[in-house]
Fold this protein.
Amino acid sequence: MVIQQQNMQPVTPISNQSIITNKSSQYYLEEGNKLLNIENYEQAILCYDKAIAIQPDCYQSWHFRGVSLDDLEKYEEAIASYDKAIAIKPDHDDA
């Protein structure tokens, strides 16, 4: 038996980039926190950076980015991230 394909359009593969941009900032924040908890600081920072790119005013992403940088002893960068978190939400407990 031969099945004929009529009016079939080729399927366009979904790129990894389009999948990444469909994630929410909350998703990346949570993934970053998981990585931070297992001391995978570099990968955690990448997740926080993605969260910040989606939602730049998320003080939590800036704060935990600072924590990760602090753990890597990148103190100046950590302070800059902490300062950004404080500027966004000065009354936060971790400020």
Notes: Residues 41-54 form the longest helix (14 residues). Residues 1-5, 8-20 have pLDDT under 50 and may be disordered.
